Amino acid sequence: MTKSWHRRTRFFNRLLTVGFFCSACLSAQDTREPADLIITNGIVVTMDGTRSIYDDGVVIVKGDVIAAVGPRGKLDAKYHASQILDAKGGLVLPGFINGHTHAAMTLFRGLRDDVTLNDWLYKYIFPAEAKNVNEEFVRWGTRLAAAEQIRSGVTTFADMYYFEDAVAEETKAAGMRGVLGETFIDFPAPDNKSEADMLAYTERFLKKWRGDSLIHAAVAPHSIYTCSQKTLVDAAAMARKYHAPILIHTAEMKKEWQDSEKQNGMSPVQYLEKIGVLGPDVVSAHCIFVDTADEQILARKQVGCVHNPSSNMMIASGVSPVADMRAAGVAVGLGTDGPAGSNNDLDLMEEIDLAAKLAKITKMDPLALNAKAVVEMATIDGARALHMDREIGSLESGKKADLMLISLDEPSAVPMYDVYAQIAYALKGSDVQTVIVGGRIVMRDRELLTVDEKAAIAKAREYRKSIAASLGMQ
Question: Which of 52, 247, 385, 387 could form a cystine bridge with 331, CB 3.0-4.6 A?
């Protein structure tokens, strides 16, 4: 009895000891903070204030924000999540920001190329829009644009078009972030045939999307050459009433500058300042014909500018003095412009490459705009240009979890000596593998999860037939 009792006692003691240690292990695991998503085993390019890069990094996501970024060895012990994405040694970057486009114009892609901007607008695009653009057109065009942008790593885009409420609905459905401007223009538009209609539609649009987590509703007076002073002032007043961004084309062609000098006695930038439009809520697309005085105004007024190299080259509009504007303190982002006539794609990776090379050849200086600078323009400086750098543009704790994973397994991706040069000059939009917006995976391993891509492509082919017929084209 005594020996048997001692044996049983020793056995139960061993069980208690094992149980104690198992409980201790479980207790240790429970002390790790829960997260919703962990991106691990990648080269994390943060674009934060010190431009930190973690060769073996981790991004921790809780809800729609980033909880932590840092070395894998340090953060693995602090967090656990049910969903883990293995970057497989690739790059983890902030999502790209397309600072200027007209998304629904995907359905006019290739309609008429190789003409001047003035002819393209007045002889081709404005007539084509009058005959074809309606809400359904805008919805399908935006779906196609969303698929194309997500595939090349764009998580946020700024848009200026018609039926912008439909653009907003489709953007949100695609899981993308958008700064979306309803167009103000001084002739009957596809969505609004009068000034009263334009004002009423825009006010409803601003009210509907106020406070949305993804959609920033904006007001978009087209330009000084399509809007009267009254229209420009009314647009700015409405935007400021609702604390909304203002999107506008500024100094984008020589004729615009010449006409402003003749009619207003000053440059387009100086004119917009004089009538009270410029301010820290304005995003100006192009900014080609600006001089030193204009640059100082833009910097002082905290206006964001968006450089569109493909567009400016394709229409031969000129070259924006990007390096000079950056030196003057202007926040300069990157845009594709619309995917028709002025640029037939929405691949921001291509704009990164072209922005650097265009600046170099224009100044005949290989140091004019380097790889790091153009990657900044696509990320953190693009966010600054949209006045959203507190929310997006870099991988930092507290910012929105907008990011992408890029494979480094293609022949053109190796070897890698400088990460910024690799992004700017070697990698392509097609190298993007996975895209996340606000903590939600919108593309995983090149499979789109939020847009019916096949349906959008099929519909675009249908629209090609009806658009061509409306314009008497074969």
Answer: 385
